[in-house]
């Protein structure tokens, strides 16, 4: 049974203008048009719209969504499984952040004590919001291989790896008022470099490492997250990485 654009708009809760835009950019073209020129959406069109909205919920740009849906290898069952896993990851992270906020409120009121580690529970630098940009920069195959190793970790292993990563950033934060070319700073860069190459199924060259350092200060999302360990931490890491790379070349 076909549905008009107004009926789809009412059913889904998105505007008619948005549906028209999806048609114009060929992201979602209705299967039929009535004799009067009205768009008519099929059941299959609605299934596609559902996929589009799942990807939008996960912050994918429309251009990338179109490329994914147009790919001959696209598998809607696999896509739904991936949507579910990503949303569960997001929910778990949000739950942790809410818990951290509640604990911090009690800590500020003097009701409880809170360790520095507990203050940063929920901050995860492996967040999926960066994955699409990484895919565009390094390609789907590279990211899939990198994720494969991570996805094989148990929950305890993931928590342990995340804590190891956070400890490296806490060390950088403690060192940030000193010199980035100090022995301790450079050994911490080495530890971060080793962490990346041993835990992610991707070869981080010195050039890639330098690119990451640059991104820590040019991308506000990275800088804001890293600076939660202490203002200026991101800039310090970038400078320490630059020195490390120069010394290794």
TrEMBL record:
HTH merR-type domain boundaries: 1-71
UniProt superkingdom: Bacteria
Keyword Amino-acid biosynthesis attributed: no
Any one GO molecular-function label of the UniProt entry: DNA binding
SMART domains: HTH_MERR
Keywords: Activator, DNA-binding, Transcription, Transcription regulation
InterPro entries: DNA-bd_dom_put_sf, MerR-type_HTH_dom, MerR_fam, TipA-like_antibiotic-bd, TipAS_dom
CDD domains for this protein: HTH_TipAL-Mta
Pfam families: MerR_1, TipAS
Protein's name in the database: Transcriptional regulator
Lineage: Bacteria, Bacillati, Bacillota, Bacilli, Bacillales
């Amino acid at each position: 049974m076909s549905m008009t654009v107004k009926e789809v708009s009412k059913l889904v809760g998105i505007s008619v203008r948005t549906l028209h835009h999806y048609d114009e950019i060929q992201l979602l073209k209705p299967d039929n048009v009535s004799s009067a020129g009205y768009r008519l959406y099929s059941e299959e069109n609605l299934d596609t719209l559902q996929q589009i909205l799942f990807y939008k919920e996960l912050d994918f740009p429309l251009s990338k969504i179109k490329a994914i849906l147009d790919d001959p290898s696209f598998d809607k069952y696999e896509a739904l499984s991936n949507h579910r896993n990503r949303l569960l990851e997001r929910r778990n992270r949000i739950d942790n952040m809410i818990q951290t906020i509640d604990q911090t409120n009690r800590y500020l009121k003097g009701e409880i004590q809170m360790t520095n580690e507990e203050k940063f529970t929920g901050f995860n630098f492996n967040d999926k919001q960066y994955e699409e940009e990484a895919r565009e920069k390094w390609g789907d195959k590279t990211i899939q291989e990198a994720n494969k190793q991570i996805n094989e970790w148990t929950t305890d292993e993931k928590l342990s790896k995340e804590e190891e990563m956070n400890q490296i950033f806490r060390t950088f934060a403690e060192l940030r008022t000193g010199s980035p070319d100090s022995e301790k700073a450079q050994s911490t860069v080495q530890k971060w470099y080793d962490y990346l190459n041993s835990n992610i199924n991707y070869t981080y060259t010195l050039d890639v490492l330098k690119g990451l350092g640059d991104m820590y200060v040019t991308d506000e999302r990275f800088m804001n997250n890293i600076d939660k360990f202490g203002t200026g931490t991101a800039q310090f890491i970038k400078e320490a990485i630059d020195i490390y790379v120069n010394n290794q070349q």
